[in-house]
Each structure stands twice: as C-alpha cells, then as structure tokens.
Amino acid sequence: MKLRVGAALFGLGVLLLVFAAGLPFYVAPSVTKLPYDLEPTTSVAEAKNAKFLKLTRVGESVSIEVLQGDLVSSVEVIPQPDDTRDRLPKELKGDAVIWDVYQTVRRADTPDVVSQYSTELALYRISGAAAPWKEQWLNESGAEQTPVGNVNYSGQIYKFPFGAGKRDYQVFDRDLKRAVPAKFIGTEKIKGIEAYRFEQRIENEVLNTPEASLKPLLGRFAPGATSGQIVYSNTRTLWIDPVTGSYVNVREQQNKELRPDTGTATVLLDADFNYNDDTVSRSVETVKDNRFKIGLISFWGPIAAGVLGLIALVVGVWLVTRTNDGAARHRADPAVAPGADPTQTRVDQEPVRDAETAEQPRTEPAGGPLTDEIPPASTNWKSEDPTVPAQRPAHGEVEQR
Questions:
Q1: Please, are residues 59 and 121 in contact by the beta-carbon 8 Å criterion?
Q2: Region entry Disordered: which residue ranges (predicted)?
Q3: pLDDT digits over 130-172, tens only?
Q4: 3-state secondary structure string, 65-94?
Q5: Going by C-beta distance under 8 Å and a sequence separation of 6 or more, which residues neighbour residue 65?
Q6: Distance separating alpha carbons of residues 340 and 62, to the nearest angstrom
C-alpha cells in the first residue's frame, strides 16, 4: 500500500513541477493580452463651470453661441470580436482587436448634446497601441456615411501596454489627428493602488478646420474678419496602472480659441474634465481583479505548484525507498522463536554437545576414515538354520554342510 501511495505522490510531484514551469511561459502570456471578448466599458468625466460652443440648427439656419455650465462626457468602448475574426488582415490576426468607441458630451442640467464622435479602430493586444488598419474611421460630424480610412491612428489610444514602463509614450490626440509625447512624471497612490502619472502638453496648436465650419464662426464672432484660425491647447494627465496598462484616472484641461485676422479672440471651449468618483472606483476595482489574475498565474501559481510538487516528490521518494528497505530487512532477519531474546541468538555459535560426548574425544579407525585395510571376517556368518544361506566356498574348496 505504501509503495502505491509513494508512486502516486511521485507522479503527482512531477506533474506539479511541470505545471509550475509551464504557467509563466505558456499560460501567463494569454492573460497579458487584450481578450477578444472584453466586456464593454463606460468612462464618465465631468467639467464644472465650463465654457463651450453650442450649435443649434433651426430650420435652414444655425444658431451659434458660447454658453457656460457643467458638462458630462461619456466614453463607451465596445469590443467587436466578430469583426476581429472576420475583418482583420492576415498580418494582424491574433495580434490585434477591433474596438468601436463612442463619446458624447452633454450639459449636466439638460439632455442637450454639445458634441459627439464615433470611431472604429484596431489595437495591438499586448502594447495597446493603434495598429495600422486600412478600414479604421472617425466620425466627428454625425454624418450617416463615414469614409473608411479617413484617419490614421498611431501611438497609445484608450490604453497603455501591459507592463508599462517609467518612460515617455506617444499618445494620440483626436483634435490634432496625430500622436504627441506624454512624459512620465512619477507614481501616485489612487484609492490604494500605485499608478504611473503621465502628462501630455499641447500648446497653441492650430487646428485644421474646414472652411465650411470656420466661416460661420467668423460671421458670428468676428464679422469684419476675412480669415481666422482655431488654436487648441490641452494638458492631458493620465494615471496608468503599470501592470495592466489600464486608465485609472484621466484629466483634460482643454482650451480652444477663435483667432480672427482682425478683432478679438473668442473662447470656444474652456473645460477641465476629470473622471468622476464612480469611474475611478470602478477602474481601481477592475485593476485589482486583473492584477490578482495576472499575479496568480504569473507568480503565485508557479510558486505554489512548485512547492507542492517538491513536497509530493520528496514524500513519494521517501515512501518508496522506505518500503523497499523494510522489505529487504524482513527477508534477511532469521526466524526467532516466540519469547526468545533475538539479541542472544547467533547463527555462528558452535553446536551444543552433552557432557559425556564433550569429554570423550572422537576417535577415528586406524588408517583414518579412509583406509585400504579389510576388516576381519565375522564369526557368525554361518548358521545352523537351513534357511540362512551358507557362505559360498572359495574356488577349489569343497562345500561343507
């Protein structure tokens, strides 16, 4: 029984050691990639007492005004596993995922929509950076038909890499339509977890504004101007979980001004957007859960499996060798009579003789135990009994009766 248990423990130990070695190399990489079936997420940011441009279409005319109030921005990320499977080119299959993203900015006090956009893009599963996909698109005007391929995403967008480093990253800006460096500032604690803080500064960048959009603004705010431009600034602060690369908190201090060739500048947007507390709390809880899963598979799982495997291996070997050693000793031990002291029994002792035999030494016949001397003939070989055969006479001797 012990032999069987020992052999089973030995096999279990080997299996656990193989499992411990395989976890970090074969299983862990699968949990440090964006999954195909990621659940949709929604992030909400709020801007208190913001200035913003409001366009209202009334019949054939458009009302343009700058208002002030609280704004709420919602960004919804919806992964597309079916499109990922069917629409990605061969060189991106297995390495990228397709996401649809929708943003809506509303007034906090009314359901009025201030601005909105939608987009579809491909992201690398490990780095979180935008993948070069020809079918990506961006719709900022609300048009029903969006030209495919009208934007070229690059850098980080909506996510940082798994295992983000303390270095600068290129982060895509939707207004500029290009990536701008985000510098690593340091680490901060957010609701109990350590996050990396990155800061991206965009200062007085001239936006590429279509003439059809710029002309109504000049007519409303600078009637005497013949030309102008919209100048954009933004200080974007990102708090990133270094393990998963997820956004923990986001702040955007945005400013847009209309600067005509004559007249004074008009502020079109002045808003300080911050993730609300519910969004930060959900982000922290999601980060904690994902950190636990990654740590369990990458670190604690291999350690636990390795320790248990070594214990099972050692106990199994001990049981097998102990069983074999006990069986060998059992075969070698002489039989001991019941009640006898085994320490007083020796197989190499001289045999015990009785006193008379011991006193009289053993004598050998003359000539030694082997001799050529013929012993004398017995005198009682002849008998008067006729049934006893007589000795046959020698050659030439008359038989006597």
A1: no
A2: 327-401
A3: 999 999 999 998 778 888 999 999 999 999 999 999 999 999 9
A4: EEEEEEEEEEEEEEECHHHHHHHCCHHHCC
A5: 53, 54, 56
A6: 118
Q: Tell me the C-alpha distance between 300 and 32, whole Å.
A: 16
pLDDT for the residue numbered 90: 95
Q: How far apart are alpha carbons 184 and 186 in whole angstroms?
A: 6
pLDDT tens sequence across 125-139: 999 999 999 999 999
Q: Which amino acid is at 287?
A: V
Residue that has been written with the tokens 């007249």 in this structure: 263
- Please tell me the distance from the alpha carbon of residue 250 to that of residue 237, in angstroms, as a whole number: 6
- Alpha carbon dihedral 310, 315, 320, 326, in 10-degree steps, equals 150
Query: What's 349's DSSP letter?
Result: S
Q: What is the mean pLDDT of residues 366-387?
A: 47
CB-based contacts of 203, cutoff 8 Å, min separation 6: 233
Q: Which tokens is 92 given?
A: 């991106």
Please tell me the distance from the alpha carbon of residue 160 to that of residue 290, in angstroms, as a whole number: 15
The two three-digit tokens of residue 157, written as one number = 């967008």
Contact partners, residue 61, CB within 8 Å, separation at least 6: none
- Going from the C-alpha of 189 to that of each of 52, 161, 284, 314, the distances in angstroms are 32, 20, 11, 44
Tokens of 286: 């999601």
Strand order in the sheet with 228-240: 137-139, 113-124, 96-107, 61-79, 41-58, 266-275, 247-260, 228-240, 193-206, 178-190, 169-173
- Radius of gyration (C-alpha) of the chain in whole angstroms: 50
Helices then strands (H, E): number in the chain? 7, 11
Residue 392 makes CB contacts below 8 A (sequence gap 6+) with 399
Tokens of 56: 């209202």
Q: What are phi and psi of 8, to 5 degrees?
A: -65, -45
